[in-house]
Hints:
It is a single chain. By secondary structure, this protein is an alpha+beta fold. 36% of the residues lie in helices and 14% in strands. Strands 6-5-4-1-7-8 form a 6-stranded mixed β-sheet. A 4-stranded antiparallel β-sheet has the order 14-15-18-19.
Amino acid sequence: MTHQHTHRPPHAGTRPPRLTEVPAFGAMIAEGWGTDVVEVRVPDGTAEAAAAHRARLAERLGGRTVVVGAGRAPVRSNDTSYDFRADSDFVWLTGCQVEDAVLVLHGADAVLYLPPPARPGEPGFFADAMHGELWVGASPGLGEWERALGVPVRPLADLEGALAAGSGWWAGRALPADVVTRHGLEPSAELARACSDLRMVKDAWEVAQLRAAVDHTVTGFEAVAREIPAAVRAGGERWLQGTFDRHARTTGNGPGYASIVGSGPHAPTLHWVRCDGPVLPDAALLLDMGVETDTLYTADVTRTVPPSGRFSAEQRAVHDLVEKSHRAGMARVRPGVNYLDFHFAAMEVLAQGLHDWGLLPVSVDEALSPQGQHHRRWLVCGIGHHLGLDVHDCADSDWQDYMGADLEPGVVMTVEPGLYFHAHDLTVPPELRGIGVRLEDDLLVTADGHEVLSDALPIDAAGIEAWTTARLPAGA
Length: 476
């Protein structure tokens, strides 16, 4: 027997039926569910590290009350969102990555406000496609979070009453604007600067997270190298980008930033994230990639490799100059040395090399002067940056605290000189056009110098050729 529908039901399509429209559905879906308890999974030491970070912030701010939010995933299109990634300051202070969560910190006393899971028996369980457990799966409850993080956890609805009791409280940047306005919170650049300054020196737990990120990144480079022949045949740059991103998603939270895979004329483009070109077998291939751990600490490593296993004479000459600059920059990374010293040391090598090649229209001294900088045509970016929860970490610090300070043990930073000769740059010889080379390593400042966390990957041209060749499939 065939049933004939004379009208389209109000819940047609992907929308769940409304209780007011279909009461029988509401009664049916609210019953007969078992308990699905999900524990919070955070690495050992997460809660202790977050507590120490809160104590450091409280001391820095003199006990001022601050309100910091995790943020919310932005809309991608219509009713779909991008993957949620919690605000870095919030994660540093809590170890929590729950969307819409809010931390209220009164001096050293913390209360975490979380949206409770929409579980069976609640309308949101089936009616909220963004958060209902029927749609997105079971998640830890407030009690599980409290046990895991060692801080009081309250329902997000209680935040209204908590904020109503205060005045002059500082608001973090990831709080919803309506919450800030409604409660008279003060958006504070000083709060962002304080967190940024404190995050410059990593504790032992953070260093361990960064070591893991770098280690997974190294194996990700190996996975990419093995796929170079497939990319040359048909897959192109996106095949390699996808290879690394899959590896990052498997070993951690995902890539720490948009992976850069630039072949030949794309390699000189600093942020070549489109990755929509072929992988040319005889062109230098620039790979700038980093795994972000589940705790959201990221690596940032770059190597330029020859897909065939051998650099051309021109590619090798550029690589040798970049390597010399790289070693000069890394040699300046140690305690008590001004942060910018590594930048100037690397730049001096590059300027001298470009002068020796006849590319500079002025002397090396004039090029390096504040009024010159002619060599920067082929390296417009800086030589490195702080690294941590953000790939370009601690960006809210003032200039004198970021670049004017001396290095100290616990700082983790990158050194990344390069030379970028664009294919349409008529100021360089034709044989150099379309060659881009960058070397980037992640360094930990130690008590007596530095440790290169990414030293499992070679930096000399011969070593990179041997490393690449060893990972190419037999017969490639």
